[in-house]
């Protein structure tokens, strides 16, 4: 265990007013080593546990998570500023994901192959081993439960490092899930602790949800260690608005996509391309929604500086601030809903991930140019198109080079749906039955009768 007297500490300050909430010790190098030893020791027994029993353990974990939903929501709010009701919804979503994998796990199977009559040919899924899960702060319980649930139900063991911006939430999650010794372990720490976990040759899978820079660094290390990587990195999700939609409704969708959870959602709307024919009423309505928005604070002042830096760079290069874009007085990490117009390609608010309550609007002369610009850039997480044209919807989902395309809804999706980011946004499936395939490796079995045909 970490020696608190000598450990490096994580300091959490309230996003509401900047006061110190608590300090927690970070995992030491020995803690990381011990966690790997415990995981390796627990893996053979957990891998041999019947899939139905592993599923039952996830159902029990989901029930415990629901029992502690209020506590986890409060911790999430205190650490990241997220609205308590929304944080509780995230906890319950995490519990539902665990139940989903409890059901899917025992059904996960390989294939039989047609070969010689006197032989058996099969493709059998097997757990990969030790999964390192590095999870984010913006939806810490729901995201973690997806990776942890899929890993555990397929027979892997997990070392989980939650973001240093929500360590208490991560520790409480680990306590609530209560798996056998060594099967699920939670370590607190910053990027240095994460790096220690990643560079170890004992990691069989590294699953990371977070920044693109960190994802690239993980991929480079994994290329040397041989670890399987699952990476959901940054996004720069476009919203493309056609000329034939109601501008009031389009503005409502844009506001939801850009301002929900203060713009701190992986698939938040990051850039808006609106047809010139409805641009004026759309911007008027979007401005009204922004003025009326009641936002939680950003996660911390460091992140606020990043968001505000993007806004100031755009203004310096000729964008117009319609509303917001100014740091309020007082403590904490508050930032207002912001609408910018006159945005041009190359501005950071269009070219990079802002991850804040900023709606940069670019007016385009036609659907073709909007689609072309929406399809530009290195990221490939998600995109949305609002249109009444079946042809335009078809073109958009075909031509946008992203893992998920949403038509006429900025958020949503069926339970059990998967996502597969592209480009700078990562690699590998997240969620859904497909994540079970990512967490397993395939062994091909050919078994014939000794001595040939009888």
TrEMBL record:
A Pfam family it matches: Aldedh
GO MF term list: oxidoreductase activity, acting on the aldehyde or oxo group of donors, NAD or NADP as acceptor
Source organism superkingdom: Bacteria
Keyword line: Oxidoreductase
Record InterPro entries: Ald_DH/histidinol_DH, Ald_DH_C, Ald_DH_N, Aldehyde_DH_dom
Span of domain Aldehyde dehydrogenase: 8-444
Protein name according to UniProt: Acyl-CoA reductase
Native species: Allokutzneria albata
């Amino acid at each position: 265990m970490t020696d608190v007297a000598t450990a490096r500490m994580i300091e959490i300050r309230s996003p509401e007013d900047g006061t110190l909430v608590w300090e927690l010790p970070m995992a030491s190098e020995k803690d990381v080593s011990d966690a790997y030893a415990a995981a390796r020791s627990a893996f053979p027994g957990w891998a041999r546990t019947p899939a139905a029993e592993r599923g039952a353990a996830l159902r029990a974990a989901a029930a415990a998570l629901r029992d502690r939903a209020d506590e986890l929501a409060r911790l999430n709010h205190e650490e990241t500023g997220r609205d308590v009701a929304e944080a509780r919804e995230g906890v319950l979503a995490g519990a539902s994901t665990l139940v989903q994998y409890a059901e899917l796990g025992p059904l996960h199977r390989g294939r039989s192959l047609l070969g010689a009559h006197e032989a058996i040919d099969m493709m059998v899924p097997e757990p990969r081993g030790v999964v390192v899960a590095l999870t984010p702060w913006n939806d810490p319980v729901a995201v973690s439960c997806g990776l942890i649930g899929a890993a555990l139900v397929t027979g892997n063991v997990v070392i989980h490092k939650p973001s240093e911006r929500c360590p208490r939430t991560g520790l409480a999650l680990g306590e609530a899930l209560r798996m056998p010794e060594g099967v699920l372990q939670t370590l607190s720490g910053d990027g240095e602790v994460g790096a220690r976990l990643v560079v170890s040759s004992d990691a069989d899978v590294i699953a990371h949800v977070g920044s693109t820079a960190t994802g690239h660094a993980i991929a480079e290390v994994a290329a040397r260690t041989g670890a399987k990587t699952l990476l959901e990195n940054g996004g720069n999700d476009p919203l493309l608005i056609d000329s034939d939609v109601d501008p009031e409704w389009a503005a409502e969708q844009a506001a939801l996509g850009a301002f929900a959870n203060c713009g701190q959602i992986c698939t938040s709307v990051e850039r808006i391309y609106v047809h010139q024919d409805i641009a004026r009423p759309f911007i008027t309505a979007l401005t009204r929604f922004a003025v009326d928005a009641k936002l939680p604070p950003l996660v911390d002042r460091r992140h606020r500086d990043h968001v505000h830096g993007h806004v100031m760079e755009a203004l310096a290069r000729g964008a117009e601030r319609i509303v917001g874009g100014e740091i309020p007085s007082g403590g904490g990490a508050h930032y207002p809903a912001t609408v910018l117009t006159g945005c041009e390609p190359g501005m950071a608010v269009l070219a990079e991930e802002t991850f804040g309550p900023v709606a940069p609007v670019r007016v385009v002369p036609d659907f073709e140019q909007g689609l072309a610009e929406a399809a530009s850039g290195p990221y490939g997480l998600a995109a949305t198109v609002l249109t009444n044209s079946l042809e335009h919807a078809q073109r958009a989902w075909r031509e946008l080079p992203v893992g998920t395309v949403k038509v006429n809804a900025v958020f949503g999706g069926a339970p059990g749906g998967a996502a597969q980011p592209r480009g700078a946004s990562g690699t590998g499936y997240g969620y859904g039955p497909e994540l079970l395939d990512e967490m397993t490796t395939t062994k091909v079995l050919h078994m014939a009768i000794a001595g040939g045909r009888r």
